């Protein structure tokens, strides 16, 4: 079924209506802002389905992870989300956004690209760049939620440019990471492939690196935003 802005907004609104204050709620609000932005600017994309399919994958993966945690089935939750969704909701919104965006952009987004038909073409790459621009704006805006006090709002405005650059970098890096995963998935399909699945190995590495970033974001309490922003990008190095 082809996703539509309406179908995605319905799913996110249903979640937001029931969700208590949490890192997951903040991430869902960021995704909602992104869907609204995509719906308002269809002329930015060569293929209007590219941004919708990409975002739908992120929505589905996040909602499935949250539902599995609610059902107390942590083994069904990807490692990055298993870490990101249980963080203290009392942390500053900027930190919560960085934590959840790590799971969504570093672990989910490369996998989302692999599911797109013909995703590795030049037109698709331009659409991904346009999607990344909208995502960075939507997520950066979500880091200053409604009801924030004047001090928090001033801090969010001051730090927004740096946060946006970090989000842009993470979104852009998802493309070469997806290419890396595709290379190893192709190798896994070869008749002479080793018993160890290279794609699964690479996939686990991506998740492990993302969990490491999230852990650093949660333990380096005294770091300023520039140091936190450095932890927004996961790079799969050549094997």
UniProtKB/TrEMBL annotation:
Spell out the InterPro entries in the cross-references. DUF5995
One family name in Pfam for this protein: DUF5995
**Entry superkingdom:** Bacteria
Q: Mind telling me what this protein is named?
A: Uncharacterized protein
Write down the species: Nakamurella flava
């Amino acid at each position: 079924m082809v996703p539509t802005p309406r179908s995605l907004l319905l799913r996110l609104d249903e979640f937001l209506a029931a969700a208590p204050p949490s890192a997951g709620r903040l991430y869902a609000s960021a995704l909602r802002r992104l869907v609204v932005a995509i719906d308002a600017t269809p002329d930015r994309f060569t293929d209007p389905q590219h941004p919708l399919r990409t975002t739908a994958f992120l929505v589905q993966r996040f909602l499935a992870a949250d539902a599995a945690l609610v059902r107390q089935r942590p083994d069904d939750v990807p490692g990055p989300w298993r870490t990101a969704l249980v963080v203290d909701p009392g942390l500053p919104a900027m930190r919560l956004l960085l934590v959840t965006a790590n799971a969504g952009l570093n672990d989910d987004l490369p996998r989302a690209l692999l599911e797109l038909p013909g995703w590795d073409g030049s037109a698709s790459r331009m659409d991904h760049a346009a999607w990344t621009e909208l995502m960075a704006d939507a997520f950066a805006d979500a880091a200053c939620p409604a009801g924030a006090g004047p001090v928090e709002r001033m801090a969010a405005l001051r730090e927004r440019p740096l946060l946006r650059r970090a989000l842009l970098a993470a979104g852009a890096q998802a493309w070469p990471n997806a290419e890396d995963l595709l290379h190893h998935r192709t190798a896994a399909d070869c008749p002479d492939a080793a018993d160890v699945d290279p794609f699964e190995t690479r996939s686990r590495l991506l998740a492990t690196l993302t969990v490491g970033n999230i852990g650093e974001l949660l333990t380096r309490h005294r770091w300023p935003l520039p140091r936190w922003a450095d932890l927004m990008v996961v790079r799969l190095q050549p094997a």
